[in-house]
Write a structure and sequence with these properties.
Elements: H1 12-17, H2 21-26, H3 34-53, H4 70-93, E1 98-106, E2 115-123, E3 126-133, H5 147-160, E4 166-175, E5 180-187, H6 188-207, H7 229-235, H8 251-280, H9 302-311, H10 324-331, H11 333-340, H12 366-377
Parallel strand pairs: 3-4
Antiparallel strand pairs: 1-2, 2-3, 4-5
Length: 378
């Protein structure tokens, strides 16, 4: 079983924002899922393809991967191509860059027993590049000020700074299933300042279970997110608004509520999921009971069903063209573009109200059209 650091780099976003949560979660078991195992499988495939491309003697892991499929292969190949592109870029300013795959990175000079595993580290004169693969589809991960990759970069500097003349640190997130390739740069001096002034003192608090509880987006993967009192207080702040008379809310009040809505919904769902699990284990919540939900009939054996309907003179199958994602998986990205690139289009996305920090451009709304037409007429 792989050993995990108490204050891991992967959980740093949480414990840096909420130091005492680390101790609170320490005794609780890790929660596993098929999504996590799928990500682990793809990381193993990614590492294999990169090392193979570099001419190293490695063993193909695909026979032993539980969730291997064509989509995973395509994602891993895209990641490998990205790594090779970054290696070529490194060769422009360094004659002998190194590529280290699945490297243990120790940053315990700043975080007691702190270590993690870097997916890919490209070390070169002037620039150290940390590349992290994310297989997840649900959460968009950004590189800017990413504490996990900052920790990895510090660990890499502990090994290579001095061997190479490093001045700049680049960190990249490669998340192909979200079409997300994001890179952020920071000077070595700025990174070490962050390590000394933010990482080290906060890690000391977290290691001792001290500091202030703090709720926010970092709660998403916390083991006690459903029962955390601070998170409850944070979300129940919305209770001060009178939702029974929404017509009385002005624009300023709505603007104050909007940033909290997603966290409120997430928190509410976490409470419901936790309560259901507890109720199924015997806990009684006054006024509630566990019942069997609605379900639909299913066939006991689809093969026999198809045979029976065919014998009766009917066609039991429905036929339709594969969707774009499934067709891309079938043909491969390059072949798909060759055959069908001109036969696809992207309709306008559904309007969404998001914070101004979101990277997407402002959508052209009806009021914008009116204003532009009005300007032209003037």
């Amino acid at each position: 079983m792989a050993k995990h650091a108490f204050l891991s780099a992967s959980a740093s976003h949480r414990w840096l924002n909420c130091p005492p949560s680390a101790k609170l979660c320490e005794s609780l078991p890790d929660q596993t899922s098929t999504y996590a195992q799928e990500g682990t499988d793809c990381h193993e495939l990614c590492a294999y393809l990169v090392e193979k491309a570099l001419g190293r003697n490695v063993t193909d892991p695909t026979k032993h991967l539980s969730y291997y499929n064509t989509e995973m292969q395509n994602c891993a190949e895209e990641y490998c191509n990205f790594v090779l592109e970054q290696l070529e870029e490194a060769k422009v300013h360094c004659k002998d860059p190194q590529v280290i795959v699945e490297q243990r990175l120790d940053f315990s000079r700043f975080v007691e027993n702190g270590f993690g595993t870097g997916d890919c580290v490209i070390v070169a004169d002037d620039v150290l590049h940390i590349i992290d693969y994310k297989h997840g589809l649900g959460v968009l991960v950004e590189a800017q000020n990413n504490s996990q990759l900052f920790c990895y970069a510090i660990g890499a500097l502990e090994i290579f700074d001095g061997i190479y003349d490093i001045n700049e640190v680049k960190i990249s997130i490669f998340q192909p299933r979200r079409g997300n390739v994001d890179t952020f740069s920071i000077s070595k001096d700025e990174l070490l300042t962050w390590a000394n002034e933010v990482l080290e003192p906060t890690a000391k608090l977290a290691y001792e279970g001290k500091g202030e509880f703090n709720a926010g987006g970092h709660c998403q993967f916390c083991k006690v997110k459903a029962t955390c009192r601070k998170r409850a207080e944070h979300n129940l702040e919305l209770a001060k608004y009178d939702f029974e008379v929404p017509a009385t809310l002005d624009d300023i009040e709505i603007a104050a509520i909007l940033p909290k809505i997603d966290q409120l919904i997430s928190w509410s769902n976490d409470i419901k999921d936790y309560a259901l699990q507890q109720a199924q284990s015997g806990t009684h919540y006054e006024g509630f009971k566990v019942v069997e939900g609605r379900s639909n009939r299913k066939y006991t054996d689809e093969v026999v069903v198809a045979e029976s309907v065919t014998k009766a003179g009917f066609d039991p199958y429905e036929k339709k063209v594969l969707g774009v994602t499934a067709m891309t998986t079938l043909l491969g990205k390059k072949r798909f573009e060759e055959l069908l690139g001109e036969l696809t289009y992207k309709p306008p996305g559904k309007p969404a109200l998001v914070p101004e920090s979101d990277k997407r451009p402002v959508m052209n709304t009806a009021i914008n059209d009116f204003n532009e037409n009005f300007k032209e007429e003037i």
